[in-house]
Amino acid sequence: MAHEINQPLSRILLTSQLVMENSPAESAAPGKLHSHLLELSTEAQRVVATIEKMKALIRNTETAHAPLELREIIDSAILYAGPFAREADTRISFHRPARAVRLFGDADQLQIALNNLLRNALESLIETPPQAPRDIRVTLRSLKHHTELVIEDSGPGYHPPDPDNTLFNTTKAQGTGLGLFIVQTTMENHGGRLEIDRSPLGGAAFHMVFPKGEAQIQIGTAAQ
Fold first, then answer.
1. pTM to 2 decimals?
2. Closest CA to 109 of 159, 165, 52
3. How far is CA 102 from CA 76, 94, 145, in A?
4. pLDDT in tens, 108-136
């Protein structure tokens, strides 16, 4: 799959670079053209890097972990999903704790996992009637023995074909279930777990549960 995606991406990168090198100076807007092509090339390179990260996830390879701030990763994921949410007339709210939530982990893996869960929620809301409320709620909270990140929506809910094996299962006609596999693998690589149930909003609720401990989670003592 990665090979099939990388082939057109390589053509996009090569074509954009060739056009930048050979675009005529007398072009109507050479500055704008070069800027757009550079942006296209940069975004394609980001996709290539993401594919490599996803390949590592699918191989269940543990990558290098470092201290990170979980609130910042959530903010970034919500920002990334913003344009899609506006297009789908969906409101994303983040119940953000005042204190920093520090995790020893892989920021890229967590970002990809959150992007997948937010995208799944947005796609499920597309199936709801136009007049129905379209809400996604993200909640981060510290409990006694673990830290929990919950992504829930007001969609039709999640009903896997096999309750004992949700990986690679999907309720979407064109879905592969790969997104949930990536999230599950990410949680395993962080010593946590993924739980799925029904949300009070009416749709699905995905719980990313991280264990507490010096090697995993540290709750900041001061607001940031």
1. 0.66
2. 52
3. 15, 17, 15
4. 889 989 998 999 899 888 877 777 889 99
